[in-house]
Write a structure and sequence with these properties.
Layout lengths: L11 E3 L2 E3 L3 E3 L8 H8 L5 E8 H5 L3 H6 L10 E5 L3 H13 L5 E6 L4 H4 L11 H15 L6 E6 L9 H11 L3 E5 L13 H10 L4 E4 L5 H11 L3 E4 L9 H9 L10 H21 L4 H13 L2 H5 L6 H7 L5 H8 L53
Parallel strand pairs: 3-4, 3-10, 4-5, 5-6, 6-7, 7-8, 8-9, 9-10
Antiparallel strand pairs: 1-2
Helix pairs in contact: 1-11, 4-6, 6-7, 7-8, 9-10, 11-12, 11-15
This protein binds flavin mononucleotide.
């Protein structure tokens, strides 16, 4: 796609917020904490959603959950994702968020395909129960309304190809008063396999008046433009594509501003980004730690999962990779990063390739009788996890 074919886009409007470029960092449990979000925000504009917070854990003031609701001083808007299955608990959680001024935007998670969640009727299973879904979204919107904090929903296409819900759920969410709807173009049964169905995203865009955000398989900035051209969406949601590549947000900003430059960092530049990422995680973990040494260790432990993503495609030996994935201090990280060849060019073979989760499809675990009773709006039992982070 050339600069002349860049689709005309406006800033994404979410309630009173105008977001440019219309780019959203997808909430990713265990990943999109305050440190990672700052790293990404340093690259480009957009909206950066925090890790998923469970409504029950928030209402019960779970200490780990309260610590997870952390934002940088300059984060604007502060974007929080909630997971809930009970309209009353969700409304109570939203009230806590708005009354304590904890966030400026609330997203509701209806996309989680994890068996322990769907088996109890939560996440991607919930929109099938259309009355419960509508009640839950209405409750959240009503609780947020006095503060003006916009509520959005994020969902999948449905449970599987025979049980699609996205158009009906999108219309119900719009009717309930959400500010936007994000669609990951996969069913729950696909999990992260195959390719995202951008035609479904186009169908939803056609069906709704509120902004629609497209999600799934944006690996490069040009993919974002292709998605916009293909679907007409108002914004794009980036998940796995930025794992080990936070500079994708710089490329996206350039792209949406009609510029063609793309980052291909050398291994030395990647190492500097890794160091910055680890440092931000150490800062984050030190803020809530009993001692600075403990904060540094926890920050480094959290960083380990990112190592393989940063080094994907680079010729780096197994032993060095393994040592990097076991670091306990920044000094150790510096020592190991010093062993990399800084002049090594970016491996273009790694471009456009899936990263992060790519698991195989499977039957969705659901509560007994779930599919047979779409209009039952009983709150499913035990589906409210009491811990956050997915
Ligand atoms: C590690 C990981 C954690 C995720 N956690 C969440 C979550 O907490 N809430 C959510 O709505 N989606 C979550 N997702 C799904 C992503 O937000 C996104 O919808 C999905 O990865 C598809 O987008 P992509 O193809 O750009 O990765 C997660 C995905 C991954 C890979």
């Amino acid at each position: 796609m050339t600069a002349s074919t860049v689709p005309a886009l406006r800033p994404l409007t979410l309630g009173q917020h105008q977001v440019w470029p219309p780019v959203v960092l997808a909430p990713m449990a265990g990943i999109t904490n305050v440190g990672f979000r700052r790293l990404c925000r340093e690259q480009g504009g957009g909206i950066y959603v925090c890790e998923m917070i469970t409504t029950r854990a928030l209402v019960e003031r779970n200490p780990k959950t309260l610590r997870m609701i952390a934002f940088g001083d300059d984060e604007n808007p502060r974007s929080l994702q909630l997971y809930g299955t009970d309209p009353e608990i969700t409304a109570a959680a939203v009230r806590i968020v708005v009354e304590r001024n904890l966030a400026d935007h609330i997203d509701l998670n209806f996309g989680c395909p994890v068996p322990k969640v769907t088996r109890r009727g939560g996440g991607a299973a919930l929109p099938w129960r259309r009355r419960l879904f509508a009640r839950l979204v209405r409750a959240a919107v009503a609780a947020a309304a006095p503060s003006g904090v916009p509520v959005t929903v994020k969902m999948r296409k449905g449970i599987d190809d025979d049980h699609l819900t996205y158009v009906e759920a999108g219309l119900a969410a719009q009717e309930a008063g959400v500010a936007a709807v994000a669609l990951h173009g996969r069913t729950a049964s696909q999990r992260y396999s195959g390719t995202a169905d951008w035609d479904a995203i186009a169908t939803l865009k056609q069906a709704l008046d509120v902004p629609v955000l497209g999600n799934g398989d944006i690996w490069e900035a040009d993919d974002a433009l292709r998605m916009v051209a293909h679907t007409g969406v108002d914004g794009v949601v980036i998940g796995r594509g930025c794992l080990g590549r936070p500079w994708l947000f710089a490329d996206l900003e350039a792209t949406f501003n009609g510029r063609l430059e793309r980052r291909l960092p050398t291994l030395g530049e990647v190492a500097a980004t890794m160091r910055r990422h680890a440092e931000l995680l150490v800062d984050q973990f030190t803020a809530g730690a009993r001692s600075p040494a403990r904060g540094e260790r926890d920050g480094c432990t959290d960083f380990r999962k990112h190592v393989a993503w940063y080094l994907k495609g680079f010729p780096v030996g197994g032993e060095l990779r393994r040592s990097l994935a076991m670091i306990e201090s920044l000094a150790q990280l510096d020592d190991l990063l010093g062993k990399l060849d800084p002049a090594e060019p970016f491996p273009v073979t790694a471009l456009g390739q899936p990263r992060g989760r790519t698991n195989s499809p499977g039957k969705v675990s659901l509560p007994e009788g779930w599919l047979a009773s779409r209009d039952d709006d009983t709150v499913p039992e035990g589906a409210e996890m009491d811990d956050s982070g997915g």
